[in-house]
Specification:
Length: 153
């Protein structure tokens, strides 16, 4: 069910409520509870009808799964954009990115990656100062372990 409440738990809650309320007042409370459930259903149906009147009949044709915000994972969107195999725009005349001794140039994974590499190279060429081409985190091997930070643990 919902909120982790199973059918068995509802039965236990009902039995405890019946014992607390007592047999004299139980029919009156059950009737008021049924009235409350009916009013809530009427309210929800009315809200649905008002929404259909305001939006129009197109609301029945909407694919609500497309509007679910949980499907918009920024990592997936960026990955899809970088791996897009669409036509690449012609890059401006700029020196090609060169691999340095610290960080070799990664192969382009699509037109977006090629455009990013071109823009990085243009930025490095226009600044005139020696800047590292890649700011990727350092990858440690089994021989060279990362530094130990005792405060982080």
């Amino acid at each position: 069910m919902f909120f982790g409440i199973t059918f068995e738990k509802l039965i236990v809650i009902g039995v405890i409520a019946a014992l607390l309320v007592g047999p004299e007042r139980l029919p009156r409370y059950a009737e008021s509870f049924a009235r409350l459930v009916k009013q809530a259903g009427d309210y929800l149906r009315g809200a649905k009808d008002r929404m259909r009147e305001e939006v129009g009949p197109e609301i029945d044709e909407l694919d609500w799964r497309k509007l679910d915000p949980r499907q918009y994972d920024p990592r997936r969107i960026i990955r899809d954009a970088l791996l897009d195999d669409g036509p690449a725009p012609a890059p401006a005349a700029a020196p090609a990115p060169t691999a340095t001794a610290e960080a070799p140039a990664a192969p382009a994974a699509g037109p977006a990656a090629a455009l990013l590499a071109t823009a990085t190279a243009m930025n490095a060429a226009s600044s005139g100062a020696e800047q590292p081409v890649s700011r990727a985190p350092k990858v440690f091997s089994a021989e060279e372990l990362p530094p130990y930070d005792s405060e982080a643990t």
